[in-house]
UniProtKB/TrEMBL annotation:
Gene3D superfamilies: Winged helix-like DNA-binding domain superfamily/Winged helix DNA-binding domain. The lineage of its organism: Bacteria, Pseudomonadati, Pseudomonadota, Gammaproteobacteria, Enterobacterales. GO terms for biological process: regulation of DNA-templated transcription. This is HTH luxR-type domain-containing protein. GO terms for molecular function: DNA binding. SUPFAM superfamilies: C-terminal effector domain of the bipartite response regulators. Keywords: Plasmid. InterPro entries: Sig_transdc_resp-reg_C-effctor, WH-like_DNA-bd_sf.
Length: 124
């Protein structure tokens, strides 16, 4: 079974208004954070809870909280949203840590807006 969902389409009008789609970045955009901290920032951007981050990273909740607090401290921010805005301003928001490029990670949560499609259907 294949799952699909609606996507945003960018028209020439969108481009003129400044709504340009960005590409993902696979190299560390800055040395401000450690690899572990970049992983925390990435999961914050995907709106994972600290508990879910702990399970995904295979570490304690306290370790996740420590990583997040270090990121906030280094950027002078106080909330996850402020941290993400800081990353957007510095063009770091499209970075994907190498750990999450491996097939074993399922990064995207199931959404009620997803549609099931029978993958056995083939155009004849």
């Amino acid at each position: 079974m294949l799952q699909v969902r609606p996507v945003d389409i960018f028209s020439p009008d969108s481009l003129l208004e400044g709504d340009v789609p960005k590409s993902l970045v696979y190299h560390v955009p800055s040395r401000i954070f450690t690899n572990a901290e970049w992983e925390a920032v990435f999961l914050i951007s995907l709106k994972y809870s600290r508990k879910a981050m702990s399970r995904m990273l295979g570490t304690s909740l306290k370790a996740v909280e420590h990583r997040i607090s270090r990121c906030l401290e280094k950027t002078g921010t106080t909330t996850g949203d402020e941290l993400l805005e800081y990353c957007r301003r510095h063009n770091w928001d499209m970075y994907v840590p190498p750990r999450f490029l491996k097939p074993r990670f399922r990064l995207f949560k199931a959404s009620t807006a997803m549609y099931s499609v029978d993958s056995s259907f083939r155009k004849q």
